Amino acid sequence: METLELLLRHVVDASIICFEFVGVFVIILAGLRGIRDYIKKNPQIRLNLATGMALGLEFKLGSEILRTVIVRELSEIATVAAIIVLRAALTFLIHWEIKVEKADDEEMKEASR
User: Fold this and answer.
1) Which of 5, 84, 90, 102 has CA 20 to 30 A from 109's CA?
2) What is the DSSP string of 49-109?
3) pLDDT-derived band of residue 32, with 50, 70 and 90 as boundaries?
C-alpha cells in the first residue's frame, strides 16, 4: 500500500509541475502576442490577451486541484483552498472580460454595416 501511495505522490508531483509549466508558458506566449498586437495596433488585443491568460490560469488551477490529492495537513489544505479560490476568481473575471470584449466587437461590427 505504501508503494502505491508513493507512486501516486510521484505521478501527482510530476503532473503538477507539468501543468504549472504549461500554464506559465501559455501566459508568457499570450503576453508576447499582446505586445506584438499592441505594436501592430490590432483592435482585438484585449480579447486575445484575456483569452491567453484565461487558458494559462486554467492550467494553473488544474495543478492546484491536483495538489489537493497529496496534502496531508489542515494548514496545507487551507493554503491550497485559498489559492484555488483566488485563481478561480481571476478566471471568472477574465472570462467576464472576454464576454464583454466579444459583445463590444459584435456591436462595432453591427455599427459598421
Assistant:
1) 90
2) HHHHHHHHHHHHHHHHHHHHHH--SHHHHHHHHHHHHHHHHHHHHHHHHHHHHHHHHHHHH
3) very high
